[in-house]
Amino acid sequence: MQPFTVHRGLVAPLDRVNVDTDQIIPKQFLKRIERTGFGQFLFYDWRYRPDGTPDPDFVLNQPRYQGASILLTRANFGSGSSREHAPWALLDYGFRAIIAPSFADIFKNNCYKNGILPVELDAAIVDHLFQEVWNHEGYELTVDLPEQVVIEPNGTRHRFEVNEFRKYCLLNGLDDIGWTLQFEDLIAAYEAERDALPT
Amino acid sequence: MSDRPKTMFEKIWERHVVREAPGEATILYIDVHLVHEVTSPQAFEGLRLAGRRVRRPDKTFATMDHNVPTTDRSLPILDAIALKQMETLVRNCREFGIPVFDLNSPDQGIVHVIGPELGITQPGRTIVCGDSHTSTHGAFGALAFGIGTSEVEHVLATQCLLQLKPKTFEIRVEGERPKGVTAKDIILAIIGTIGTAGGTGYVIEYAGSAIRALSMEERMTICNMSIEAGARAGMIAPDETTYAFLEGRRYAPKGKDWEKALEIWQSLPTDPGAKFDRYLELDASQLEPMVTWGTNPGQVVGVTGVVPDPSEMPTEDERKAAERALEYMGLEPGTPITDIPVDRVFLGSCTNSRLADLRAAARIVAGKKVHPRVRAMVVPGSQHVKKAAEAEGLDKIFKEAGFEWREPGCSMCLGMNEDILQPGERCASTSNRNFEGRQGRGGRTHLVSPEMAAAAAIAGHFVDIRDWL
Questions:
Q1: CA distance to partner chain A, nearest, from residue B265 (Å)
Q2: Fewer Cβ atoms within 10 A, N terminus or C terminus of chain A?
Q3: Which residue of B has its CA nearest to A109?
Q4: What is the CA radius of gyration of chain A?
Q5: Which residue of A has its CA nearest to B203?
Q6: Chain B residues with CB inside 8 Å of A198's CB?
Q7: What pTM did the predictor assign?
Q8: How far apart are the first and last CA of chain A?
Q9: Residue B1 to chain A, least CA–CA distance (Å)
């Protein structure tokens, strides 16, 4: 996993609440057995009209948001299906951080496993950032994980919370299977007791 | 401290801690890992690339359900990419020594139907699967939740997960539920009350007299949709209903082991006086059959109600979401729910495809005919469900009424195979998600109970099932 430390990038505003993972990556693209190449299918039914041409009204198709690497969105982003194809698609498209008032649990977890930082900020601050993005073409934010702040171009800082262990994993791009396997003796000891039980 | 009253969740959590240290995620032991074709290929590939093995193939079970065709199994599979995914699962399971219930297996079915059916799902166990509806298994008093593919790989390699401890939420449903009000209506009412993010960060324990009165099938329907309220897991304390369901099943403990297991299971329920982080109580006697009108399961109303007016929504976000949902759904505010016509009916999914669900629907359709405009299908949850239903003649009842009787799989719940809605088609569905495009791009899904879906198939529009009983 690629580490996440400090990231500065163009912000794309997706002004919808409860965006579910079926919207992030529709099911017809889950048949692939690779981890890569999902970016072209991101938000497919919103990005493309039924005839396959890009829908110019969808935010990611607007010229001013080309090259965006920070997604600004509304509450409960990533609800529904556990498909990790959703963060794979976001990452492959180029997003490194997502800012929202809240995230669905499984999706949030999947982001951390892929080097994407989900940043939770108060709904009022998110509202303010939406206004700023809409009002200023080329609007960029800095997401600083070591300091746990989102920094506006004028220097205004917004603090966010992140679990200490998750932060450590992201900063170091940790292979968490390797991390768990260093306690292999504890797992084996646990199993010795557990396997003796009838259920 | 050890005498402090504990919730069932806390007891199961504590019994599975392998390592706990300040500033670290807990290493939690996983008793059962269920695997399917769609969320596992990248995990197996990860193992191969890192030269790792599957730690406990004996605690891992695989089946194929998400993208399997539900047509005649003797016919070739036409979708080459889906076929490759199914073949990949079989190849991976052979390579790593994992038992797999493939398309030819008499045990094949939706992963959340076959786990309980085979007795793999047991009280007190930690159960995970790369599928959000793993919460289903909590109906047995297990701690069961969905995980992503990276975590699937983690469990395959270590039989453990790194977990942050969730909070606990007790939802009590008290009183007697009226005739025609099903488990599906209870859970839809709960989601309508707390919203699709209301359970985020929590494990829900469902309790109260109306929950205790439920069969195992009904409890599975409730726990299944916990994730639609944002909760990764839902659970119900095991009791005589649970034990009666499990006894004699293939993987259930036998003889002396059964007695010992019972002793363990009886120690699981939440202690009197144990504290939850949050509480909610619902009166079952006030519930009515529910129908979703929007594009998430929280956008739901009683069958005697009308399509709501977005301008009356409490927040700006909800107003905008409702406006967008009504546009997508092609509905006008104020339309009585029973005036909404349907084109398709889907009876199936890990929420409502078990024998009890099919029996309930068959009672409604027996001797009647599907409305001429409607295409209706039944997709049993597993080969065992299908066989049992056929043994009691349910297939004949459905077929004579004009339903299609199909092979087991997830089918039109998520439309990964060819079972999809056409743009603009409106479907009464017993599944769990009414998201935009979930059942096919432009398709319009209304979530209902099996009884309500069956009645809509006959009438060609939603009806209050209580008028038919």
A1: 9
A2: N
A3: B148
A4: 19
A5: A105
A6: 253, 256-258, 260-261, 264
A7: 0.98
A8: 36
A9: 23
Q: What is the largest CA-CA distance in chain A?
A: 64
Please report the number of interchain residue pairs, chain A to chain B, with beta-carbon separation below 8 angstroms: 191
- Give the pLDDT score at B300: 98
- Cα–Cα distance for residue pair A194/A197, rounded to 1 Å: 6
pLDDT tens digits along A18-39: 999 999 999 999 998 999 999 9
Q: Is the dihedral of CA A196, B2, B5, B9 positive or negative?
A: negative
Residue of B38, B153, B441, B447 to mutate, testing the A interface (most A Cβ within 10 Å of its Cβ): B38
Rounded Cα distance between B55 and A130, Å, is: 47
Tens digit of pLDDT for each residue in A151-183?
999 999 999 999 999 999 999 999 899 999 999
Write the residue in B122, B148, B416 that is nearest to A82 by C-beta: B148
Instruction: Spell out, as residue ranges, where chain A has pLDDT lower than 50.
Output: none
Burial of B363 per CB tally in 10 Å (0-12, 13-18, 19+): middle
Amino acid at the residue B20: E
